[in-house]
Amino acid sequence: METLLILLGVLGFAATLISVHIFTSGSEIYGDGASDELMGAAFTDRAQGDRRSGLAAVFPILINGMVVNEDRRSLRDRRESVA
Asked: In the prediction, which pLDDT does 72 show?
């Protein structure tokens, strides 16, 4: 019984060390000091104004090689709240 408790204690300590290592390495990679190469294009600088052109889309329309037959949005302005 004593051997089993020692074994469980050693395994628990090893699991704690492994989780601390994963946590610290993750904070180094994804923390505030991460380089742009590691983050890729996750964050894009955008203008603060409205990016819509104001022109209505005419359906069917070809977007990224796929044909969209009809507009599935139900609201006139998609930024309006539903409630």
From this structure: 73
